[in-house]
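Continuing the series of single-chain predictions for the mutant panel. This is the parent chain; the variants come on the following pages.
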Amino acid sequence: MPTALVTGASGFTGRYLIQALKARGFKVVGFGSSATGADVTLACDLTDKAAVAAAVGQAQPDWVIHLAALAFVGHADQEAFYQVNLFGTLNLLEALGALERQPQRVLIASSANIYGTPGIEVIDESVCPAPVNHYACSKLAMEHMVATWYERLPIVITRPFNYTGPGQDERFLIPKIVGHFARGEPVIELGNLDVSRDFSDVRDLAQAYLGLLDSDYRSCPVNVCSGKATALRAIIEMMERIAGYSIEVRVNPAFVRANEIPTLRGSDARLRKIVGTRELISLERTLEDLYRYLGGVR
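Parent structure:
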């Protein structure tokens, strides 16, 4: 039985990747800070080089999916973004490189946040990165560091755009909106309702990651996105249909960003070329599933 190592196994994405890997017949070893659905869970601080080396030596993985990251953009400790996202990844790669039997495939999750606000509506992998916060800067720095390992390990870097699904924290926009409807709240405060963004379902993202790992594609980044843009106003309308009532939306100026790009969506052309045709979950179904997960009753 092949072994897959998933870092960030306790997180939102990790839980779905573990389910998908186990369905494929993998023994899954998870690095996590709390209980996971992995066959083996190891508590491992990625910033502790010795601990990472010991845990990787115990796992002996065939596949590696590196999801662990400090991801909340509003995190107060700016240095922590670099300690975890950059140097934590370096510790992992050094540990993998030191194995006598190195992994067959390594997937490193970066972020579409590295593109910043490029001023174009459709973003493919050729767009020059221009990060605008420390989270995105740390991810771009990580990408450059990871590229120095391309000749030593079979690595693919993913750049996921926005994605959501049951289990995502309500600090994020879509669960915040759906949570208000699930609780029957009459009012919600949001920013600009007319911006459109590329949203995917976390379950589609998990399948895209498996498709990339199945391929022999390596040494280049790949956008993971739906290729479609949906306006925030349209999401509110979908939720009003799902929940059966209208909500009062109040625009909070604190949530409106200066010089916000009206429409941003990713190009998934490279991903489709690698993994083939993708049957994607509709955004409305994602919202319905999240609504039920949060206790909403239709």
